[in-house]
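Need residues for this backbone.
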């Protein structure tokens, strides 16, 4: 599938906030940062914020509105990510959506036997190969925890497995700054050095504040490292309405916005122009189960509002769609994922994560769900092309050529245009079911196993050896 932008005069749009409502949320967020502030437990960061005009009282930091506004002006408005070979492929600009999976699942749903088991390092590699084979996934994540690896090395080994088994850009998180440094060094090896890396970064570091309004030391160490090395940085706030955020949906958006903007301020104070990706993933607490819901309509509504806030700030956005609270690939999973993906695309959610890799509210990874999501994203993208209206598409001349009572099957335009339509191998459009024909689940399983046989373009021998040497050093250092 081509990832070039369609030449359109109009495409479908979703707006859930008025311009005045966006301003009110912005002003309320500034008030929170200026009046309430946040807790930051890191001497260097406190010193930097104090020097920039922040008001410091112990570990409580209050950020004046003028400082926040100034940092918004400094932050880059556009970010381009690249593949292993340096091809500039993901363009975070202009409200386009780029879909990817997620990370940190603890369990794996095996497509071979349908069993649920702990997520291991081999699953990291298998999912990366699958993602590499699915054309509608534009970028990658580690997807799950390497639960069979030593805890002090699991994040590095999972990142290595991902970088080795897909050519696509990688968004990752890690335990500490030493692991962050190790992943960054792997990326430099793969992209042939810092100069090439900065032209089209292969990796993006993902970090979160602790709602409400707190940052802890190791997280700040990683933010500082990203700023020093101009490594693209995501700060995603994730308040749970009624739990770690106000029960009011807009109140949780205000809190989340203040938290993400505080990350932007820290990045721009430390290093003006640091590549920064804004984000809020706020959803409701299910009061029956206390879970952080991923499939709720409220989450889709708030994520659409966040897209509008990102457009208001002119910031690249880390969005969310395609997750489900279901434990199985069933009608609930399909309904929740389609609803979220269409809402995210129509609202312009940027770098959209969680697509097809999160069942059971973020704990279960499923290759089959990823394959299903690849089809759903294709459908969403077809919808988002909209209806270009020009002389050719209006087809007045063709209608006149065929005239009353004719048909268009043999007209040259039919073959050309129909090649651009979506024909799924997964969805059945036949007139009637044939005896013995495979059911949907059987077709999905067969397609998944076929895609999992995919082998990505390997790293060069020299690069593979260097990554192996790095791993050997990590293991020796970790004992």
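Answer:
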């Amino acid at each position: 599938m081509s990832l070039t932008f369609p030449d359109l005069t109009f495409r479908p749009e979703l707006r859930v906030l008025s311009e005045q409502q966006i301003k009110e949320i912005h002003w309320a967020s500034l008030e929170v940062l200026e009046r309430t502030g946040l807790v930051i437990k890191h001497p260097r960061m406190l010193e930097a914020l104090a020097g920039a005009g922040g008001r410091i009282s112990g570990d409580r930091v209050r950020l004046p509105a003028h400082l926040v506004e100034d940092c918004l002006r400094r932050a880059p408005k556009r970010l381009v990510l690249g593949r292993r070979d340096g091809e500039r492929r993901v363009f975070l600009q202009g409200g386009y959506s780029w879909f990817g999976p997620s990370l940190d699942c603890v369990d794996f749903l095996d497509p071979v036997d349908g069993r649920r088991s702990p997520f291991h390092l081999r699953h990291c590699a298998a999912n990366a190969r699958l993602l590499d084979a699915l054309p509608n996934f534009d970028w990658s994540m580690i997807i799950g925890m390497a639960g069979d690896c030593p805890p002090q090395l699991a994040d590095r080994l999972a990142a290595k497995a991902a970088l080795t088994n897909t050519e696509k850009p990688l968004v990752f998180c890690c335990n500490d700054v030493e692991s962050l440094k190790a992943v960054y060094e792997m990326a430099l090896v793969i992209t042939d050095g810092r100069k090439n890396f900065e032209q089209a970064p292969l990796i993006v570091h993902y970090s979160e504040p602790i709602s409400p309004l707190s940052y802890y030391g190791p997280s700040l160490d990683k933010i500082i490292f990203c700023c020093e090395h101009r490594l693209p940085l995501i700060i995603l706030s994730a308040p749970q309405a009624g739990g770690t955020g106000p029960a009011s949906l807009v109140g949780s958006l205000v809190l989340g916005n203040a938290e993400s903007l505080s990350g932007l301020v820290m990045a721009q104070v430390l290093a003006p122009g640091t590549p920064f990706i804004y984000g809020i993933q706020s959803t409701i607490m299910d009061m029956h189960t206390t879970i952080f819901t991923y499939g709720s309509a409220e989450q889709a509504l708030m994520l659409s509002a966040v897209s509008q806030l990102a457009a208001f700030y002119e910031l690249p956005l880390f969005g969310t769609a395609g997750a489900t609270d279901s434990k199985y690939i069933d009608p609930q999973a399909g309904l929740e994922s389609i609803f979220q993906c269409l809402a995210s695309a129509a609202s312009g959610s940027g770098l959209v994560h969680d697509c097809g890799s999160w069942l059971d509210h973020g704990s279960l990874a499923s290759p089959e769900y990823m394959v299903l999501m690849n089809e759903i994203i294709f459908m969403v993208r077809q919808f988002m092309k909209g209806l270009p209206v020009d002389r050719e598409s209006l087809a007045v001349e063709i209608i006149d050529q065929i005239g009353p009572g004719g048909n268009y099957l043999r007209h040259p335009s039919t073959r050309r245009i129909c090649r651009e339509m979506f024909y799924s191998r997964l969805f059945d459009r036949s007139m009637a079911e044939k005896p013995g024909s495979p059911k949907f689940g059987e077709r999905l399983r067969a397609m998944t196993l076929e895609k999992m046989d995919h082998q990505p373009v390997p790293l060069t021998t020299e690069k593979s050896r260097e990554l192996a040497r790095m791993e050997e050093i990590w293991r020796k250092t970790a004992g």
